[in-house]
Write a structure and sequence with these properties.
Chondroitinase Ac, Chain A, domain 3; eight-stranded parallel sheet; 2 domains; globular; six-stranded antiparallel sheet; 18 helices; alpha/beta; about 575 residues; TIM Barrel; about 25% strand; disordered N terminus
């Protein structure tokens, strides 16, 4: 470990020990608490743990890391030093039930024990029948018995390395093992509530083909669309997503018939058929688990990539945005349909996945400066219950993730304010980027003010400054801000690589900065003021006459570096 990394780990560990986004006091008994659950508060859905809202600042472990307690032992401190309060960790069917009917929960117990020792929460990822659309984490006794646990087939009848959704015995066996694990979690963790969420399977869907061609699938596809799906579509016709309604309109919205009679012939019908069968299968598994211990449950989507031409290029029938109505109809035991987002245009993708009131949680994405911007946008603008980059157990405190860890630490100490502001609708987030996509400016309206953001390009003169001539931007520049409205004229900003100016929401008055203070939040979420900023620190423009003509004061907030910081500002109009 180099000198920089050693210093950073030590410092970050000290901050992590002080800052937690779950400040609720421990109780001698959890008898008075509900289990972790989702709750609608204002316009957002929040995760409630021991009676208090919880913001999951998470990271997902690599697929095989959690399978060995010895492998993980030296890595937990990296996660803590990186600002995480939650870890997404895999538990596999093959480890839990290596022999049919004989359950081994050693891996579960090891994870819970280690998480408690490091004051971390867990979301368990159940890798049962599918992972990334493939089947490899199921036990060998399932793998060997294709007659009882059938694979999906190609159109030519060849076996795919993917369990069929039409295997009733497979769903029952998967559900039995999963329910046994959930029963065990209730027995060992209902009081301490270390495990706060569950992910069912991973990025499900059929690879290569638009649909499964096994005999059971062929028979189902030739038969009637299930009455349950038709009723759900009819009951929700006025609020269906356009992708669903467009497919249904091909038959003038028939309420019965075969799949092709109701949705027409083509790839989209095959995809809807697979979405129904994946959702129905996973609903059986999830419901079996919830009967034992009802924790919030989400699924994650391998999202459609720019180069994909048809279902099967991406896993067909998964919980992609265009399939959400079908999943809601088929899987009421699934609470959140989550996207794994590694593509560049994070905001627009996330908006697609938040339609129809779908709660926002991102189980896989990036870290680094771009990941911090993603997390800030998701939490501040989209009301997310959490964000989770992939594979930081060995990379949380590397130099390339320094600003990401700094954001997590600050967001953790600020989380009480964030969560309250989410519920009360007095928070926004912004995401700006120099290239791919280019989005160097943004604006939000809060109370009586327009708040305008512009990217700062580190090391470039006038980069991002709101001059009349505009700025120049380094190609890799990315910035963000979370802004909370404390009262009518007072705002708290957490920002990086961004500058902020103000205008009145209406009228021709000018907005001035009455008081600007930098500072931080302590371990209990209390504001600790630092410097009073004025003069050069807030004067962003010296072309005053043009600024006044444009209705600006020339002053603003300067978050002119990648490391995030807090600034509180009081505004007035003149």
């Amino acid at each position: 470990m180099n000198r920089f990394l050693s210093i950073f780990v030590a410092a970050a560990a000290m901050i992590a020990a002080a800052c937690t986004s779950n400040p609720a006091p421990e109780q001698p008994s959890a008898a008075g608490y509900q289990q972790p659950h989702l709750e609608k508060r204002g316009n957002v859905t929040q995760l409630i743990v021991k009676g208090e809202p919880f913001l999951a600042l998470a990271s997902e472990l690599r697929n095989s890391s959690a399978s060995s307690a010895a492998y993980m032992e030296p890595l937990w401190e990296n996660l803590k030093a990186g600002g995480m309060n939650t870890v997404l960790a895999v538990v596999t069917w093959e480890q839990v039930e290596p022999v049919e009917g004989q359950f081994d929960f050693t891996v579960v117990d090891d994870l819970v024990k280690a998480a408690r020792e490091h004051d971390l929460k867990l979301a368990i990822l159940w890798f049962g029948s599918w992972k990334n659309g493939m089947s490899s984490y199921h036990p060998v006794w399932v793998k060997k018995d294709n007659a009882k646990y059938p694979p999906a087939l190609t159109k030519e009848g060849k076996k795919l390395p993917i369990l069929s959704t039409l295997g009733d015995a497979t769903a029952a066996a998967d559900g039995k093992a999963y329910a046994a694990m959930m029963k065990h979690l209730r027995e060992i963790d209902a009081e301490e509530q270390t495990v706060i969420m569950i992910q069912m399977e991973n990025e499900v869907g059929l690879h290569g083909y638009t649909r499964d061609y096994c005999p059971a699938a062929n028979a189902a596809f030739a038969g009637q669309v299930p009455a349950e799906l038709m009723k759900w579509l009819s009951d929700h016709k006025d609020t269906l997503l356009p992708e669903t309604l467009d497919a249904w309109k091909k038959s003038n919205c028939k309420t019965s018939g075969t799949w092709e009679e109701v949705f027409g012939k083509g790839d989209r019908t095959d995809e809807i058929f697979m979405a129904w069968n994946y959702a129905s299968y996973m609903n059986k598994v999830s419901a079996a688990g919830k009967a034992e211990y009802d924790l919030p449950t989400f699924v994650n989507a391998w999202i459609v990539q720019p180069e994909d031409k048809r279902p099967g290029n991406y896993p067909s029938g998964g919980p992609q945005a265009q399939n959400h109505d079908i999943w809601r109809a088929g899987a009421p035991a699934i609470d959140i349909l989550s996207p794994d987002i590694y593509l560049a245009d994070f905001p627009n993708i996330l908006r697609m996945y938040s339609r129809s009131g779908n709660p926002v949680f991102i189980p896989e994405s990036r870290a680094g400066q771009g990941g911090a911007a993603n997390a800030a946008f998701a939490i501040g603008e989209m009301g997310a219950i959490g964000y989770s980059p992939f594979g930081l157990e060995s990379g949380a405190v590397t130099p390339q993730n320094k600003t990401f860890a700094e954001f997590y630490h600050k967001a953790g100490c600020f989380s009480k304010e964030i969560l309250a502001a989410q519920a009360e609708g007095r928070i926004h987030g912004t995401w700006v980027k120099a290239l791919d996509p280019t989005r160097v400016k943004d604006e939000v309206v809060m109370g009586d003010y327009k708040i305008q953001f512009e990217l700062v390009s580190s090391g470039r003169r006038n980069g991002g400054a709101p001059q009349r001539t505009g700025g120049t931007y380094a190609p890799d520049a990315q910035g963000y801000a979370i802004v909370v409205q404390d009262d009518a004229d007072n705002f708290t900003f957490l920002g990086s690589n961004i500058r902020v100016v103000f205008q009145p929401r209406e009228g021709t008055e000018t907005v001035g900065l009455a008081k600007v203070v930098s500072g931080d939040f302590d371990a209990d979420g209390n504001w600790v003021p630092g410097r009073w900023l004025n003069g050069d620190e807030i004067q962003l423009r010296y072309d005053i006459l043009p600024a006044i003509e444009e209705n600006y004061s020339g002053q603003g907030l300067d978050f002119g570096r990648p490391s995030p910081e807090f600034i509180k500002v009081q505004l007035y109009k003149y």
